[in-house]
Fold this sequence. Notes:
Helix content: 25-40%
Radius of gyration: 16 Å
Largest sheet: 3 strands, mixed
Number of strands: 3
Distance between the termini: 30 Å
Amino acid sequence: xxxxxxxxxxxxxxxxxxxxxxxxxxxxxxxxxxxxxxxxxxxxxxxxxxxxxxxxxxxxxxxxxxxxxxxxxxxxxxxxxxxxxxxxxxxxxxxxxxxxxxxxxxxxxxxxxxxxxxxxxxxxxxxxxxxxxxxxxxxxxxxxxxxxxxxxxxxxxxxxxxxxx
Length: 165
């Protein structure tokens, strides 16, 4: 499997699985994801030095209907996860490490990696101009999480004054 860059549109930040389920449910989902991957990265098969893997949300964007749909949860080593969120790597001055890992995993040149980054940011800019509907039906279909109509876990209270971050 190739390592890809997945930049979430700004208008979707803090609108994800973790912000819509309880801490206990998030822990259960991560555990299911990690066990299914045998605690190895599903892209490079490596493990991280401090913790083996991290849980990453794979999203599908329906650019016509403006729906951000959860496709699945995937176990990633910290280095692959850093590439997926390369915007954060850039913010943390770790761009070089992320690009180097992208090149290594995909067997591409730094120039090819930079083209992938530019393309991801171009798509990100376009998608960030729109408001998206969130579809977390995958959680109920595959992980038995009961969702309310607002995509929040049933029974989970929404904070009254601030958005979940």
